[in-house]
Design brief:
10 helices; five-stranded mixed β-sheet; alpha/beta
Length: 279
């Protein structure tokens, strides 16, 4: 009969137990979250257009990126002890960038809708507004009611709620790839397009910047009260919590209202408009 080395067998069993224990520790270790990665890098990656005055644009003299939501995000990141890394892309690509993880959030006057909330997480609203229409001053582009949009050329972004409305009433959509306000407005002025459906505050300030184009906000079309928030991936629960907590603090202490006054001619967009809407 063969004799076994008891000490060797015991040592082997002990080594196997140690290895099994190490393997168990590795398998039970928690994976890092998106918020963990953001904190480790110290950077918040944010998609914006850089062409949407006064929400996100470049200062003409310094070329510095600024605007209502740009400054809100800067203050948000500062309170979270993070730097901001901006990704300037067209509106239609922003949600895709959030979905794929290219950026942590998107900030570009993006309206909160039930359809978008199925796929994305929105922050606490930071802006309340409603829709208006920019038309030619001399004949209101032949538009008296929404029904008159049929056959008109409506300028905008393909995935915006305003273009959805234009399609609903039979307008011909004219899509731009991250165009400036001046291009949008000038095309209406010269007849390349007929109407721009968009946010009241953005439209008002855009017209003020280009007063000689012979275009106006339609006097009778006020519609679709809206709420705007920052957009995040639904899976990033810790980021969502951090962003919402900080934005609520900024709303409570008046910081966002103060930024609003700077970019919206003294108006506080954090308050809901007191208007009876037909649409």
């Amino acid at each position: 009969m063969k004799k076994f080395n008891i000490r060797a067998v015991c040592a082997g069993l002990l080594a196997a137990a140690v290895l099994a224990g190490c393997g168990s520790d590795d398998s039970s270790s928690e994976e890092t979250t998106a918020w963990d990665d953001i904190q480790e890098e110290g950077v918040l990656k944010v998609a914006t257009s850089g062409t949407l005055y006064p929400t996100s644009f470049h200062e003409s003299e310094t070329d510095e990126l600024t605007g209502f939501e740009v400054e809100v995000v800067k203050e948000l990141a500062n309170r979270l002890d993070l730097e901001v890394e901006w990704e300037e892309i067209g509106f239609d690509g922003m949600l895709t960038a959030v979905n794929t993880g290219q950026v942590d959030l998107a900030s570009n006057d993006i309206e909160i809708t039930e359809e978008r909330e199925e796929d994305f997480a929105f922050s606490t609203p930071i802006k309340y507004s409603y829709g208006t229409a920019i038309v030619r001053e001399d004949d209101l582009s032949g538009i008296e009611t929404f029904e008159d949009l049929e056959g008109k050329r409506a300028a905008g972004a393909a995935t915006s709620v305003y273009m959805d409305l234009a399609r609903e009433y039979g307008a011909e959509e004219v899509i731009y790839d991250n165009a400036t306000n001046e291009q949008y407005l000038r095309d209406v002025s010269v007849g390349n397009t007929d109407v721009i459906l968009n946010d009241y505050y953005l439209q008002t300030l855009a017209l003020e910047a280009f007063p000689d184009l012979g275009i106006v906000i339609h006097p009778d079309l006020q519609y679709s009260p809206s709420e705007v928030g920052l957009v995040m991936n639904k899976d990033n629960e810790e980021l969502i919590e951090q962003v919402n907590t900080t934005l609520e603090e900024m709303l409570e202490d008046g910081t966002i209202a103060e930024i609003s006054g700077e970019f919206f001619a003294g108006q506080d967009v954090t308050q809901k408009p007191d208007i009876d809407f037909e649409q």
